[in-house]
Design a protein that fits this description.
mainly alpha, 6 helices, elongated
Length: 94
C-alpha cells in the first residue's frame, strides 16, 4: 500500500489496520460512498495538490487535469494502489 493511500485510510477509517484480513477485504468491497469520496479527495490533494470539497468538484478536477497530469495519475495509481482499489480509482479518470 502506498504511503498516500495508507495515510488516507488511517485518516478516514482509523481502525482499519486493527481489523483482520477478512474484515479489511469486506470493507474494500463495500466501501461506504462517503468514505470512498474522502479517500479520493485525500489522494487528489496528496498526489496533485488539488483541493475539492464535494463530489462535483472532485469530478470536475479529474476532467480538468491536463494530459500530463492524467498520465501521472495513471502511473501513480498503478504503482501505489493495491488491485482492488486501483480499478476503483482508475475509473475516476475516465
Amino acid at each position: 500500500m502506498s504511503p498516500e493511500l495508507k495515510k488516507a485510510v488511517i485518516k478516514i477509517v482509523p481502525d482499519y489496520f486493527s481489523w483482520d484480513q477478512k474484515r479489511q477485504e469486506q470493507y474494500r468491497v463495500d466501501t461506504p460512498k462517503e468514505d470512498a469520496f474522502k479517500i479520493r479527495q485525500f489522494l487528489l490533494r496528496e498526489l496533485f495538490d488539488i483541493f475539492v470539497s464535494n463530489e462535483d468538484e472532485l469530478e470536475e478536477a479529474w476532467r480538468a487535469m491536463n494530459e500530463a497530469q492524467c498520465g501521472k495519475s495513471v502511473l501513480t495509481i498503478t504503482l501505489v494502489l493495491p488491485p482492488e482499489i486501483h480499478i476503483f480509482v482508475l475509473d475516476l479518470t475516465i
